[in-house]
Design goal:
This protein is an alpha+beta fold. The protein has helices at about 5-10, 15-25, 40-50, 55-60; strands spanning about 1-5, 25-30, 35-40.
Amino acid sequence: MQTWQLQSAKARFSDLIKRATHDGPQEITVHGHPVAVVISRALFDQLSGNDESLVSFMRHSPLADQEDIVFERDSGAAREVAF
């Protein structure tokens, strides 16, 4: 992982983004201390699980093949609504 001082990262922001996309995560430091990491959108999606659709997630659920799932409902009185 390449390390950038904050001043360099600001001055060469477009190069920083290109390197994050092609070379992997880029670390940013302030006064020699690591404070942030810039990663590509593709890596972010992979790490956060955003690359899977909701439909795909539900199809791979352990409960996907169960037909007898019971959802409990509150049997209390409905709330009053004033019109």
